[in-house]
Amino acid sequence: IMSKIGITFSVYNRLEFTIQCIKSIVENDCKHELLIVVVNNGSTDNTYEVIKKEFPDVVIINNKENMGCAISWNQGLSYCYDQKCDFLVLTQNDIIISKGVLNNSVDFLLNSDENVKIVSPVAINVPFMSNKIIEQNKLNEISEITKEKYKGSRHCNFIIYFGMMFPEVFEKCKFDEKYRKALYEDSDFYRNLAINRIPHATSIDIGLMFHRYNTTQIIANNSSIVENRVYFDKKWEDSIDKVNEGSSFLSGSVTTNITYPHDNFLFLNVEESGLHQW
Asked: What span, in angstroms and rounded, lies between the C-alpha atoms of 261 and 277?
């Protein structure tokens, strides 16, 4: 059965990464209908013009200035939700996904015996400063080898860099727009998932994503870390017991089964993935 998948991310310059991100989505061999929504946060590198020329079907929401993560993520997700998408995907413009991730994510959610509502592939983190463009076919090759080697590995958590969810998750857990620019809006979202007891997971069987961490935060000259932390702590100081209760419930409702060697089970480093050979 064909479903409609709404995929959104926000951008602030770094056009070369944005183009590669979109290509990894449209060339993912997805059997479902795709709606791609880019929220342009006042980019000055011709992001709008280039995307419209190379990908005319992509919807672009133009903000006159950098509205920050929480506001722009809500903008994109709301648009996809209003278009009656069966699944919503939040990702980042410094991500590329291995082939098959979209189909595999839909299949995982539809067939989850633990009622998982939001899921992500495993991430390979590479610092923004490396400033390299990875070849898509190389990530696809690494993904197939890794999926076979560590088949069945999953963790009862997910990664904000790429998460496919049922629309009901967004209904209950919109991003708090009081967070400025970036930082802590994702931690806030995780806590809302816990309080609402929404099962989530990361699975190697879905595939891999390649992430240049810190891209947006560095480029945006983010100065909101102190303000966001103060707001975050104040907001949750009276609810931490409920958060912990929800987290404990979720840890027991989704099985963690990790076979790959790493102290952070949501990620593979470049050596473990074989990416260091690239």
From this structure: 18
In this predicted structure, what is the pLDDT of residue 263? 55
State the helix-helix crossing angle for 225-236 and 185-195, rounded to 10 degrees: 20
Q: Which one is predicted more confidently, 271 or 194?
A: 194
Tell me which amino acid residue 218 is. I
The answer to whether the CB of 75 falls within 8 A of the CB of 39 is: yes
Q: CA–CA separation, 33 vs 84, rounded Å?
A: 12
**Residue 121 DSSP symbol:** P
Looking at residue 275, its pLDDT comes to: 56
What is the gyration radius of the CA atoms in the chain, in angstroms? 18
Q: Give the model confidence (pLDDT) of 30-72 as tens digits.
A: 999 999 999 999 999 999 999 999 999 999 999 999 999 999 9
For 211-225, letters b (16+ CB in 10 Å) and e give bbbebbbebbebebe
Token duo for residue 142: 């690494």
Number of CB atoms found within 10 A of residue 141's CB: 15
Under 8 Å between Cβ of 156 and 200:
yes
Distance, CA of 209 to CA of 221 (rounded, Å): 25
Report CA-CA distances (Å) from 130 to 42, 94, 234: 25, 12, 36
The answer on pLDDT for 217 being more than 50 is no
Closest-CA residue to 219 (of 187, 185, 181): 181
Q: What is the pLDDT of residues 24-37, one digit of tens each?
A: 999 999 999 999 99
Strand residues in 131-274 grouped as ranges (E): 154-155, 162-165, 200-203, 208-213, 267-268
Strand segments, DSSP code E, in 146-199 are 154-155, 162-165
Angle at 257 between CA 136 and CA 184, to 5 degrees: 65
57 close to 36: Cβ distance less than 8 angstroms: yes
